[in-house]
Amino acid sequence: MSEKIDWDPIRALARRVIREGAPLVLDDDVRALLRRTAREVGISDANAEQALSTEVGALELLRESSRRITDGSNRLMDALHRMYRHQKAGDFDSARQEMRDVLSVEVVPHYREVAEGQLEDLEDEP
């Protein structure tokens, strides 16, 4: 993805709606935010549009988008930490495997790009 990702608005919406119990008001701005975020986390446009056709679906779309952002971030950060430890120890095969493991399960394009970039950087190592 060449564009800068800003997940602060979706995180704020999720905090208000999911954690604090505020109602999800589906105005044009919220719909646009949910569509954009769905695309950024690997949810198809068709699935996002279907979800946005009902309030229950829109809430589930918010939950799923938020979950993908959080889970993907945690997974990637944990793997990067282990990868750097392996690199420092000179175990480049294990370092590469950390990124392959992320790529085997990650659905968020941004996190996949980060893992692919790290794996590519490691290809120059023995």
From TrEMBL:
Pfam families: DUF2379 (PF09543). InterPro entries: DUSAM_dom. It comes from the Bacteria. Residues 6-122 form the DUSAM domain. This is DUSAM domain-containing protein.
